[in-house]
Amino acid sequence: MTSMASESVATIVCTCKQTRFDIATPDYRELDVEGLNITVSSGAKAAAKGKSKSKGEGIEILNNAKLRLKAGQRYALVGRNGTGKSTLLKAIAEKLIPGIPEETRVVLLQQTNITDENLSDAKDYSRSSNTGSSGLSVLEEVIERATARQEVQREIDVLSKGIESADAYGALRGLRKFRYNQLQKDLFLKDKDARLRSGARGMQARKALIAAEKEVAAFETIYSQKNEEITSEVLAKETSDAADMLAELELQVEPSKLAEVESRAKKILTGLGFSDLYMEKEVSSLSGGWKMRTSLAAALLQDCDILILDEPTNFLDLFGIMWLQQHLTTLADTPEPPTLVLVSHDRDFISLCTDLLIVKDKDLTYFHGDLPTYESSRAEKKVYLTKMKEAKEKQKEHIQQTIQKNMKEGKAKETKTRYDRLSRGRRSLTIAGVLNRADIDIPQDERPVSFVLPEPPDLRFPGALLSLEKLAFRYPSNKPGKTVQPLVLKDITLSVNMGDRIGILGLNGGGKSTLIKLLVEETKPTSGTLSIHPRLKLGYYSQHAVETLQQMGIGEQDLTGLGLMVREVSGELDEGQLRRLLGSLGLPGRLASDTPIRKLSGGQLVRLELARILWKAPHCLVLDEATTHLDYESVTALREALKSWEGAVVVVSHDRWFLRGVVEGLNDDQDSDLSDNEENEIPRRRVVYRLKAGELVVLEGGVQQFENIMEKRVRKVMNS
Prior knowledge:
The protein is of the alpha/beta class. It is built from 23 helices and 20 strands. It has a 7-stranded mixed sheet, with helices on both faces. Strands 16-17-18-14-19-20 form a 6-stranded mixed sheet, sandwiched between helices. Strands 1-2-3-4 form a 4-stranded antiparallel sheet. α11 links the parallel β8 (306-310) and β9 (339-343). It is globular and about 100 Å long. Pfam families: ABC_tran (PF00005). Keywords: ATP-binding, Coiled coil, Nucleotide-binding, Repeat. This is ABC transporter domain-containing protein.
């Protein structure tokens, strides 16, 4: 079976083995698809051929994989950037994979790029009405996504107008207009479905489209009937049907039912950081981050069988992340919890998942448990298989020595017996009592992700790199004569020395980004002083860095990462040095020199931005949410690189695991053997600050103390 989605840029082609469904009612929360192949190829070529792509055409994402989701389980979809995670999610959500029943209700929250207004797109693929309406407040938008309330109300208005009309044919006309609109919507969906699919499923979709077109054409004849052509029996029946339909629709917007939905919506929005005032703001007036949170709230409010969340923690602060973690966990207590598929680089956050779904080598593998357990079990398995292979090699060597000895001594029978054992491999090995009949295949690790940070040059004389003394900041008043704006930051005193590790935590809107802009001199303080070491080279990663690079790529369609670097270094490094730098950060060869910036993934753009910072060999790195677009392996690599780097690091991040490693120097069980070379290092100053109400306070208990504070707040909100 084959299915295909054509787009202006690319086509997703899905094939799998024929699936036979049970006669019993299926559980739409489950998927079980054998022999799944997914290829992304040129939309134009695929549309011309209208069939599955052969090998070598397009990019193959999966090859003969098994897609298996169990009802109510929570899956963390993990894999390196570029392995096709988002493509797989889209194929599931749009039901491009043959074997996914059309009745399955799928809600997808998927990250989009800057060309889509830099927003998340939360789509309910189970319902025809999903688009938001202009002018709606946040609360109205979220409720509309979940209930299609406005659309239902429009249908009620059409019927009511007819029924309440003095015209005897008013109710009939209202009902026929309602039915005609419904048929038009159904025709639109059938047409979209036919264009998305190919193969056997495509043929079935095209037959359904033809049938829908005939039904619309037939109804148009009825719809255009004149009053005198309508019999009294038809008039009486359709007048009665109109009243019944009106009563059915009114039940959907019954005040008590809508009040329940509104109450749930408010709880979700509060958990995601919306105040009552912000809930009443028009969606169109919000920033990209708040629009993303609105989409996330809409996705969480909708009833569905499969809930897919692609990086839902982007733009959330730690309170929002911990609330979402708790909310998704408590879904398990509902009568029929949706099956959750989650993509996130935040290792602490994905600990809520019961299972891992791993995309690797164009295949899907499964693990029941969390990520640390999986990594530990892989390491243990590799050690176990290595020992078995060594034992087998020793056994072979022993048998070969015995054969040679028997041959020298002329013992033909013993030689033949030993030779048979060696050639057939039937000797039972003592390790775990396993009868080993074949060569032992030790799984090879992928080439590890790594970040190589250049060591900073000598400062020549000592002193603080950055020093803030009693610094304060307020935004200027927008209009002359208006009252003075309140202080955003007040009495900030902070010093950053070589080798320091400083973490800054706080809720969104608390002034973290403002403080960072003051540190890097993008903003001037209202009062107080900022002192900078005269030889300081500063590297600043902005939380908007990826969006800035995407805008560059849109403005200059052919600009590559290497081309941008050549332009910016102005001859201070030659092309070979730039290629080595880009390669050390994960942008090797043609990816750097031939691929336009506009085609790079979010994770690749992070690497490019780091190259723009690191070529100057800075003494201090100021990182504002640098992990947002990276996969978890890249986050791990960046964490390890920063832990041992000689320069100073100031980090703003909501990723608890990342902060614990970079700022507090903590190690996981998996890397503890790499670990504590810190005894041989120059002692580092490690400080975690909380920025609250404009004031900077040291957290003596570090990241865990802040997490404990947020946990109490989350419990309070969940129980309210």
